[in-house]
Design a protein that fits this description.
Helix content is 56%, strand content 18%. The two termini are 25 Å apart.
Length: 112
């Protein structure tokens, strides 16, 4: 599967995805470009699955990705227990419109 570049370098793309996933977990929904929303969806889904495991190893793996202690705590204490019975599909992408200025397609990604 080919990944979208999103930015010029690997490090910047990785940082962008981590920061947006942390914002998604803390806020429940974020508004971003459609390409970025599609890029962060698999990362968010995997982190919620880790949160459902709930053990120390899963918490450390999530902390290695998120780099935000508040987001890790929120993931394991509030977000993951909400999806205990669900087998996947924790996020939804809704197309909102286009951005003024460059007409980039805007989408809202939210936790179901």
């Amino acid at each position: 599967m080919k990944k979208s570049r999103l930015a010029s370098t690997h490090g910047h793309r990785k940082s962008l995805i981590r920061n947006q996933v942390a914002a998604l977990i803390l806020n429940g929904r974020i508004r971003t470009t459609e390409t970025r929303a599609k890029a962060i969806r698999p990362v968010a889904e995997k982190l919620i699955t880790l949160g459902k495991q709930g053990d120390l190893a899963a918490r450390r793996q999530a902390a290695a990705v998120l780099n935000n202690p508040a987001a890790v705590k929120h993931l394991f204490e509030e977000v993951a227990p909400k999806y205990a019975e669900r087998q996947g599909g924790y996020t939804r992408i809704l197309r909102v419109g286009v951005r003024r200025g460059d007409a980039a397609p805007i989408a809202q990604i939210e936790l179901v």
